[in-house]
Amino acid sequence: MHIVAIDGPAGSGKSSVSRAVAKQLRFGYLDTGAAYRALTWAVLAGELEVSTQSSEEIAENFAYSISLDPEDYWVRVGNSDLTYEIRLASVGQAVSEFASLPQVRQYMHWLTHNLISTSSLPGIVVEGRDITTVVFPEAKTRILLTASEEVRLERRSAELPEGTSIADQVTKRDQIDSRVVDFRVPAPGVHLVDSTELDFDSTVEAIIALVAKD
Asked: For the chain, which domains are there?
């Protein structure tokens, strides 16, 4: 399986670009950030407790599922479809608090590998934070997708639901997440794609060209 790992800060276009790349390559698509958001939603809803649980206990109590089909994307916890709910401001503002817990990160590492290893896809584009360095350092193609803060703020404002604080979703999220992983400098062997001066289609083409070379 050809794994394409795409890392980068909030607002860099990871999700939309990765999904488009997956469609063109006929690969699967895995948004790892959705799991963090779904877990946060479950905690806020009182359906899950993670602060005192081990990664194994989280796996037992968190009935998470996600589509790997870029043409038919959905996120569920149990029987609840959370595809829209996980993008709400309340979830986005709280996600970093739980994402920084060691047992949550350990669970997410297991979850990501399990979702991919149990699929029969020829390739998969997996995107999220620390994917290229911690979760899938062995991926065949590793890319750090970034852009200037100004551009990321502008792009993020167009994606989020009405009433969401853009500063909280991008700038504050950068400050919190940078304590866990350096998402601004590519690790050895990781391709850097700066989309500040690129439009959406050009960014997708740049990544597909790198996949073809690898």
From this structure: 2-209 (3.40.50.300)
